[in-house]
Write a structure and sequence with these properties.
Chain lengths: 528, 424
Amino acid sequence: MADCFDVIIVGSGPAGVSAAFPLVEAGLRVLMVDGGKKATLKSPSRPYLSTRFEDEEQWKWMVGESFHALQKINAVSPKLRAPTHAYVFDDFIAQNKIKAKNFVAVGSLAEGGLSNAWGCGVARLSTDELADYPFPESEIAKSYETVTRRIGISGANDDDLSDYFGLDVWSQPPISMDVLHQRMFDQYASHKQELTSLGFRMGRSRVAALSRDIDERKACDNSGNCLWGCRNKALYSAIDDLPSLMKHKNFFHKSGFIVDRVVKNNEDLAIEGHDAHEYMTFRARKILLAAGTLATTGLALRALKYESSVRLQSCPTAAFLLWQPRMLGAARVDSFSLGQLSFSLKFPGDITAFGSTFSTLGIPMSEFIRHMPMSKRYSADLLRHLLSSCLVGNLFFPGNLSTTEITVNADGEMNIIGGYSSSVSGLMSDAACRLRKSYWKLGALLMPMSFTQGLPGGDIHYSSTLPMQHDPMLGQTDGNGELAGLAGVHVVDGACLSALSEKSHTLTIMANADRIGKILAKKIKGIN
Amino acid sequence: MKILITGASGYVGSQLVKINAIKKNHQIVLASRHRHDGVQQWVHFDLNNVSSCTVPESIEVIIHLAVDTSGNDEVRRHEVDAAKALIDEARKIGAKFLFASSQTAREDAPTNYGRTKWRIEQEVLAANGLVVRLGQVYGGPERGLFGTLTSFMQRLPVLPAFIPSPKVQPIHVDDCAEGLLKLVDHKSIKSGVYCLASPEPISFTQFLRSIAISRVRRRKFFVPVPAFLVKFTTGIISKKISTRLGLNRLNSLFDLPLMNTVADLEIVGLTLRPLSAGMHKSGNDRRCRLIQEGVALLTYILKEKPNSNLVRHYVRMAEKLRTGTALDIPVWMIRWPITLTLLDDRANTSLWQREEFAWRIDAATVIAEASRQGAARFLGSTKTMCPLTALFRMAVAVSSEIAWRLMRLVIPSSFLGLSKKKSL
C-alpha cells in the first residue's frame, strides 16, 4: 500500500461497496478499511426442520457455546441473539463509545457490516419522496438500476405494490410463498375493494434474496434458515461483493482496522486508527464515510468538533402476531423466513406505514413463549399447535416521526437519547385498529395483546444525522454528501439521507453511494 | 503464628493441617510419636510417655487433638498425664492452649472416654485454656466414628433404628477445623468451654440415612432395635469385644447431653454447612443441587426427562452467567416438576429469588428448545393435523393453565419458597 490513495472508504457494508465499484472501475486507487470481524460459526448445512429434528449440535448455533442467546436475552430482536450473527454486532458499541438511553443502538465492525444480518427489504423512493433530496431524480434512477442488478432482487409481480416498490423492471420473479401467505394473498384478491377504503394495499415483498442463481450465489431453496445464515448465499450481503472488488489491482482492503479519527491538516486528509498491533495513518485525496449511520456520525462530528446535538431519524416500529383459524393444524414446512407479503397502510395527513409478514417457523418458539401471559409449560402446549397457523408482522412509520438526538462530547463519547414524536402513540393505535380490520377480512385474527410497539431505534433504520441539503450548514452535507466545513470528506451511508421514509432504506443508501461514487470518479478523473 | 498440634494425623487434625496449608495463615509444628516423611517441623510427643515432651519457645498456640480411642483404663490415665504435661509446657512458654473435647464429656459420663475428657477439661480450664466440645463429626475422609459407620453401612444390608433414637448434633470435619483455626485467631476470647455443633439435634437414624443416601449411595432398610438391648449387650460381653464392635462408643450416644451451640457459634464466628451439603464427598452439594434444579426446570418445560446434555448446558449456564448456586425451590417441587407452574408467574417477581427464577425458567426454555428433544416438543407436527384435535389440545392447555392459576390463589405464597433475599 502506497503513501497516498485517491479515495479511502471507511466501512465495507452496503454503502461502502456500492461507492467503491464506480471509483475502482474508473481506475482510481481505493483503500477500503473495516473492523474485520468475521463469521466464526457455519450456517446450518441442512434445511431448518431436518436440522432441528436430527442435529445433536444445534444448540451451538441456536444458543451458542458461550450462551450468546442468553447473554443477549434482553436484546430487541431474535437476530441480535442468534450466535451465528454474534460477530456482526460484536464490540461496536464499546469501540464507538456509545451510550444510548431509550434507544436501541446497533452497528457492525464486521466485513460486510450490518448486511450480514439484515432483513433484505428493498424499495425505491418515489418522485415525491425524492423531492426532499438536493439532486434530480434522474441522477439516482440509474444508480438504483446498477445496484439492483448487482445485488439481485426477487419479488417482481404485477400487484398493488408494484409501483410502491418501483423495482420490478430489474427484479427476478418472487420466491414461492408458504400456504398461509398464499391463502391470505388469494383472499386479498377478492376483498381488494373493501381494503382500499381502509388504506390497506398488499403485494409480494421485494427482497434482496435470489430466486435465480447469480454467479456463486444460489437461488433460495426454502431451507428456512434465513435467521441463522443462508448456506446458499441467496440473501445479499456486502461481503459477497468484496471478491469482485479485490479483482481490481487498484483496490486495497485493510481489514481489522478501526478508525479513531478523520484529520485534516491544510489540504491533507487522513484517517488515524489502529489494528490489533499498531497505530496507523492513511492519507487520501478524498475520504468516504460508510461506517454505518452511528459510527459515521461519530467520526464526522468528532472531526468537525461539533458538540451540539444532531437529530437522528429512525422508523417508529411495531410487531404483531396474526392467526389464521382456518389453517389450524397446518403442517410445519420449511419456507423462506423473511418477508413474503408486504402491505402499505395510508393514514390521513399523507402519512404511510409499511410492513411485511413472515413465517413463524425459523424463529425459536422461546421468543414467543417469553411474551405469553401464561406459564411456560402451557404456553409451549398451546403454541406448538397454534404457531403453524400464525404469521408475524412488522410495521414501520416514516423517520420524521422520531425525535432521537445524538451528541458527541469533547471526549469523543456519543450520547443517544431516543424518542418519538407525540403523534406516534395515536398513529400506532390507529394502525393496530386498521390492521385488525384489514387482516380480519383476509381471514386472519390480529392476536389480542400481540401488537407491540418497539423501542426507538429497534427498527435499525437509522439515518439523516448529516442530511444532504441544497445549502448545507455545519453538520450537514451537500448533494454529493460532502460535509460542510470539512471539504473532501463525503458521507455516503444512511447518515446523509435527506429524509427517511417508511420504506426499507438500504437500497436507497446503496444507490446514493453509487451515485456519489460515480460523481467523485468523474471529478477526480477530471482533475487528473 | 506458630502452632503446635498433637494428633495432627487424626481425623480432625489432618483436615486442620490441610485447610491451614490452603490458607497459609500459620506455621504448623507437628507433635507425634514418629516423624513423618516430608514434615518440616516436628516435636516428639507420645500420649503414653509424657516425660519426653518439650515444646519450643517460639510456639504461640498449642492445639491438643491427640486421643486414644482404645478405651483401656491404663491409657486413659496416661492421657490425663500427657495433657497435664502439655499444659505445663504451655504455661512455661506463655502459649494459648486449645483442647478438643467431646459432647460426651461429663463427670458422670457412662464411658471412660467421656469421663477422661471431662478430667482433662478441668485441667485446661484451671490453666485458663480453651475447651472445644465437638458434636458428631462427619464428612471429608471416612475416618473416626464417621468412618466406622460408613464402612459398616457398606457391608450391612440392614441398619438398626434405635428406639428411642439418640439425638446427635453433627458438625462437618472441615467446619471443626475452621472453628479451631478461628479460635486460634480470636484475639479476645476468654477461657471456657465452647460447643461447636449443629444447634438442631437430629435423630441418629436420620444421620445414618443421610450417610446412606449421600455417601454410600444405597437405600438401606432400617430395623427397629430397642435401645436397652445395646446397653444390655455391652453389659454382658467382655470389654474387649464390645470395644472391637464399637458398642462402647455406640453406648455413649444414648446419653448425650444437649449442647446449646448458637451463642458459641456466634462468638467463634462460624457458620456450619447443612448436613445435606456436608455429606457429599466434595463437602459441598452446590453442583448437585444445581443439577437437580436443572433437571426439574427442564422436565417442567419438556414434559419428559431431559437428555443429560441439556442438564449439562443448564448447569454450565448457571455457573457462567448467574450465581452458580441453586435457588431455594421447595423439595416437593423439585420432585414433581409440574408443580413449578405455581412459581412460573411473572406477575410476582418483586423478590430477587422470584425474579431470578423467572430468568432461569426463560433460560431453561431456550436451552430445552435447542435440541432434538426440544424440536419434538416445540415445533409441532410436520404433518397436517385435524383442526379439531389441535383445537382440543389447545383447550386442554388453557384449562390446565386456569386450574393452576386457581391453585396459586389458594396456596399461600410462603409455602412456595424463593422468598430469601439475595445473598452475596
